[in-house]
Amino acid sequence: MGRKAETYEGLMTRLEEILSSMDNGEISLEDSMKKYEEGIKICNKLYKILNDSESKIKILMDEGEENFEYQ
Q: Of all helices (H) and strands (E), which one includes residue 54?
């Protein structure tokens, strides 16, 4: 079965959980490193989502301007 699509909100929630667990200082250095690595991966996914969204918005805005000019 395929993996469920990760949402921006879901990724942000997970990132906040990681940061919270690292901030409390109650995890080992090894666990902190694993969480840091996971956090970096999540940040990269978030950046991609934002970048893709920005591209879609630019396309929609350009199409809207073209349609407006012809009316």
A: helix 29-70
Residue given tokens 């690595």 in the structure block: 37
pTM: 0.76
Say which residue, 39 or 26, is predicted with more confidence. 39
Residue among 21, 16, 24, 22 nearest 46 (CA): 16
Contact between 46 and 12 under an 8 Å Cβ cutoff? The reply is yes
Q: Position of tokens 């809207």?
A: 64
Distance CA 21, CA 58 (A): 37
Rounded distance between C-alpha atoms, residue 39 and residue 36, angstroms? 5
Q: Indicate the residue type of 45.
A: K
